[in-house]
Amino acid sequence: MITTRGWAALGASAALMVLWVAFGEPELLAGGIFLIGSVIVGVLIVRRSRPDATLTRHITPFRLHEGDRARVEIRVVARRALRPLIIEDEVSKLGRARFATSRAGRNSTVSAHYEIVCRPRGVYQIGPAELVISDPLDLAAVRTTAGGVDRLVVYPAIETLDGFPTTRGHDPSVQSAHPSHAPSGGDDFFTLREYRQGDDLRRVHWPSSAKRDELMIRQLEIPWQSRALVLLDSRASTHTSETFEQAVKGTASVLHHFFGGGYLPQLWIGDSGRPPGPAPYELAMEKLAAVQPMKALDLRHAVLRMRQHGYSGGALVLITGALDDDNLAVFQTLGRDYSKTVLMVVADEAPASLTAFKLGGAATAVVGADDTWAGAWNEAIGAGRWSSASPG
Q1: Quick check: helix, strand or coil at residue 257?
Q2: CB 131 within 8 A of CB 144
Q3: pTM score of the predicted model
Q4: 76 in the Ramachandran plot: left (φ > 0), alpha (ψ -120 to 50) or beta?
Q5: The domains spanning 53-155 and 167-185+223-382 adopt the same CATH topology
Q6: Cβ atoms 116, 72 nearer than 8 A
Q7: Burial class of residue 119 in the structure, from the number of CB atoms within 10 Å of its CB (0-12 exposed, 13-18 middle, 19+ buried)
Q8: Among 374, 127, 104, which Cα is nearest to 257's?
Q9: What is the mean pLDDT of residues 365-371?
Q10: Among 101, 187, 219, 235, which is least packed by CB within 10 angstroms?
Q11: Residues 110, 144: contact at Cβ < 8 Å?
């Protein structure tokens, strides 16, 4: 209730009282009484002026990537006259916006806006906002929360890539550099699986859902050429903070490129042994917005469990930092299930162990932590040097 200035005024009044006792000057006593009285009057004013208003917030644009700017518009509708009114809206870990208006009439609307530089990637909380009313001398104030909590999801930055891996269909003699686009799967029934966030509810298999007491989805067969697995090696031991962010940026760029080119990619970032089914673009990017290096990830074991539940075909893209034996084991384990493999490495120079991947038929792209992915990707895909040898 009492502000910092109010407590300072009380401290000053106490000092004046001490001086009055010491020197007996009536002016000192009067000054101390005046300060105490001012604080008391301020408290009474704000008690009678408790904010009563509703607040709404609108964030544009809806989708943001690292480095973009977001505009936040706030509208406050006062149910009673408020004067003066201060609006504070906080964005977790990014800062606080503060606005002040001398008066907000009853049933009037106060509007304000501010911009956020969306850096770094992540999931941020905006709000709830605080409405503050203080006395004219700012000796006392009353605060109340208004509005809900909004989420601001900042996707990783992306680069524009060009070209797709040349993949084969079920017929080995048929090759295609453009995937068959089937955003909802093919026409053939494949299997039943548990419901995942973002699934189309029209594909719920209600008899099985009732029997198992949980939603079950009819998984339809996805065209072989449209499949892709994008695997981010998120082990902390293979990355520095700079190389990890570069790897995340490369992963986001590949996903953006594949979604735009007709693929239905799976994304695996080390969160479980079983890769999720093809997810909407927004859900995949939100996972990348929040991903952090993992210290206790057993990559080999996770990939073995993944292979038991995953599906093959199409393209495999592996993004990592420092190459090690575990990366080679992943390539040897999963590479045989996919028509083409792309290895993306964040390193200052091509490591010697890259030769084993090239001999196994993988296309390789190596960039430094401060370089761009587009040139290395385009060179790897456009070179056309795809080996038909199987990994391992």
Answers
A1: helix
A2: yes
A3: 0.73
A4: beta
A5: no
A6: yes
A7: middle
A8: 374
A9: 93
A10: 187
A11: no
What one-letter code names the amino acid at 192?
L
Q: Is the pLDDT of residue 355 over 80?
A: yes
The structure tokens 């407590």 sit at 7
- Enter the tokens of residue 216: 């079950």
| Nearest residue to 176 (alpha-carbon basis) of 224, 221, 230, 220 | 224
For residue 338, give both structure tokens. Answer: 């996919």
Burial profile 312-348: b = 16 or more Cβ within 10 angstroms, e = fewer:
ebbbbbbbbbbbbebbbebbbbbbebbbbbbbbbbbe
Chain segment 306-353, per-residue pLDDT in tens:
776 655 667 889 999 989 898 998 898 888 888 889 999 999 998 888
Contact 143, 118 (CB under 8 A): no
Q: Which helix (H) or strand (E) holds 143?
A: strand 141-146
Does the domain formed by 53-155 have CATH 2.60.40.10? Answer: yes
Instruction: Tell me 151's DSSP state.
Output: E
> Do 264 and 183 meet the contact criterion of CB atoms below 8 Å apart?
yes
Architecture of domain 167-185+223-382: 3-Layer(aba) Sandwich (3.40)
Distance CA 371, CA 290 (A): 22
For residue 345 the two structure tokens come to 């490495």
Per-domain residue ranges of the chain: 4-47, 53-155, 167-185+223-382, 187-221
pLDDT computed for residue 310 by the predictor: 56
Burial of residue 216, with CB atoms counted within 10 A of its CB: 0-12 exposed, 13-18 middle, 19 or more buried: buried
> What local confidence, expressed as pLDDT, does residue 179 receive?
46
Instruction: Tell me the CB-side half-sphere exposure of residue 286, using CA atoms within 13 A.
Output: 14
Residue listed under structure tokens 């304000």: 112
206 with 294: CB under 8 angstroms?
Answer: no
Q: Residue 269 has which token pair?
A: 């970032």
